[in-house]
Design a protein that fits this description.
Its EC number is 3.2.1.51. This is alpha-L-fucosidase. GO terms for molecular function: alpha-L-fucosidase activity. The longest helix has 30 residues, at about 1-30. By secondary structure, the chain is an alpha/beta fold. The protein folds into 2 domains: about 20-370, Glycosidases (TIM Barrel, Alpha-Beta Barrel); about 395-480, Sandwich (Immunoglobulin-like). The termini are far apart. About 35% of the residues lie in helices and about 15% in strands. The chain binds alpha-D-glucopyranose.
């Protein structure tokens, strides 16, 4: 008995030592990415692309919609929600021939919208790789008639147009090859400790016969290596849905990436608090109560699905998207907005139009966005909005009408920016947070319209807006130089 207890103590102790050294190593690696993280925070606005075989069913399987099958929105989850056997789902690859896909067109669209980076799903939960993979035949080159490496084409186009590039990679869930995402073994261990085990996302209807660790060893880790080796300019890796991953497993992914390219920064969902940057949640704009000890990126959909959903035409308007961008940036985050091309590679016309409108606003106002930081006041004005998740936003819609008293603030060096989305009827703007005593104003300029006279009182900063503001894309931005 004594011997057994001693062995147990040694085991526990060495586990602790291992954890400690893993944690120390992680901190060392994470700290070395300070510069890469700063660059990331300057970018502010990016494009997320969810694309894969799920674009073919587009949210409908055997005549049933996602809603009818029980999990709304996420059309890229169709294999799970319809419990499609692996073999049957894999047959979709033979139909995947997105002849209209044009990487330059997509990258240009992002660039003209004012986006600075693109992150594409190199492999989503279905296990299908959009890039050439030597370790799996379930990829764009081997399994489809298309035979063009989509990730490579986008990567090259990003280089041509000077956009940064990143990949999403579903490291834990892989319905084709990832077995049950170690659900059974974790559950068995947890039954002894009375801990809950969540099977959410695991393939329990037709799991691959190999074990989860075989999947990690033979597919996930090798594919992450392939991505980093084939695309040395990758800046971001967006792992997702860590589920039951252990700290050791998350660490192995982190270290694998670091050893090949130490400048790549990794999103939160690598799991076990090992991300370099935080993600507040799907379609969630953080509130003042959310505290982040890492740089963060808010992510949102254009309609309510990430992957193409043929019957969801509830597109966010350009005005709403502008609100998301300004709200997120004035709180200090990046905004990554998602598009889901269809099975031919096309993007809905409304999406393109709204991106163009955002681009017109950005062309005039982008200096209040890129490289900016939050000011001590994030916003003022009577209008409040709360966006907590996909379902809430879908249910409630976006009926907000901003007023000319609503302002958002950002700051860059000695410049302070006050962004408004509505012109006052009186043509007189009053910004209360910029009252005398609060800020020592030297000069005021309206982006796209030039310098203006101002008056500063205890009540605020008053400006008579020139007629030319009416020609600006939406509202106006005050650029304030301080003494
Ligand atoms: C969720 C979903 C996934 C989507 C992702 C985007 O975790 O599983 O389908 O890719 O969110 O944030």
């Amino acid at each position: 008995m004594k011997y057994f207890i001693m062995l147990l103590l040694i085991a526990l102790w060495s586990d602790k030592v291992l954890c400690q050294s893993m944690e120390n190593d992680w901190h060392k690696m994470n700290r070395s990415k300070e510069r890469a993280l700063q660059d990331f925070q300057q970018q502010k606005f990016g494009m997320f692309i969810h694309w894969g075989l799920y674009a073919i069913p587009g949210g409908i399987w055997n005549g049933k919609t996602m809603e009818e099958m029980g999990i709304p929105n996420v059309a890229e989850w169709i294999q799970l929600v319809a419990k499609i056997p692996r073999k049957e789902y894999a047959d979709l690859a033979a139909l995947f021939n997105p002849v209209d896909f044009d990487a330059d067109h997509i990258v240009n669209m992002a660039k003209e919208a004012g986006m600075k980076y693109i992150v594409i799903t190199s492999k989503h939960h279905d296990g299908f790789a959009l890039f050439e993979s030597k370790v799996s035949d379930f990829d764009i080159m081997d399994a489809t008639p298309f035979k063009r490496d989509i990730v490579r084409e986008l990567y090259e186009a990003c280089k041509r147009h000077q956009l940064e590039f990143g990949v999403y990679y579903s490291h834990n869930i892989d319905w084709a090859d990832g077995a049950d995402a170690q659900y059974a073994t974790t559950k068995a261990a947890n039954d002894l400790t009375n801990n809950d085990t969540d099977s959410f996302g695991a393939n329990l209807w037709d799991p691959s016969p190999n074990g989860f660790s075989t999947y990690l060893k033979n597919k996930a880790i090798p594919q992450v290596k392939e991505l980093l080796e084939q695309f040395p300019g990758i800046r971001y890796i967006w792992f997702d849905m860590p589920g039951l991953m252990t700290p050791e497993q998350s660490y192995t992914f982190y270290k694998t990436v670091y050893d090949i390219n130490p400048d790549v920064i990794i999103a939160e969902r690598i799991g076990n608090d090992m991300g370099d940057y935080a993600i507040p949640g799907d379609n969630r704009i953080p509130t003042a109560d959310d505290q982040f000890d890492k740089p963060w990126e808010a992510i949102g959909t254009f309609n309510h699905s990430w992957g193409y959903k043929s019957y969801d035409n509830d597109w966010k308007s350009a005005d709403e998207l502008l609100y998301w961008l300004i709200e997120i940036v004035s709180k200090g985050g990046n905004y990554m907005l998602n598009i889901g091309p269809d099975a031919k590679g096309n993007v809905a016309p409304t999406v393109m139009n709204n991106l163009q409108k955002l681009g017109s606003w950005m062309a005039v106002n982008n200096e209040a966005i890129y490289g900016s930081k939050p000011w001590k006041v994030q916003r003022e004005g009577p209008t409040t909005v709360s966006i907590t998740d996909t379902e809430q936003r879908e249910k409630e819609g976006f009926k907000v009408q901003f007023t000319s008293e609503d302002f958002w603030f950002t700051e860059r060096g000695n410049q302070l920016y006050a962004i408004s989305l509505e012109l006052p009827e009186s043509q007189i703007a009053l910004v209360k947070s910029l009252a005398r005593g609060e800020v020592d104003v030297k000069q005021v300029e309206i982006l796209g319209a030039g310098k203006v006279a101002f008056r500063q009182t205890e009540e605020g900063l008053t400006i008579k807006l020139p007629k030319s503001v009416q020609k600006l894309p939406k509202g106006y931005t005050l650029k304030i130089t301080r003494n």
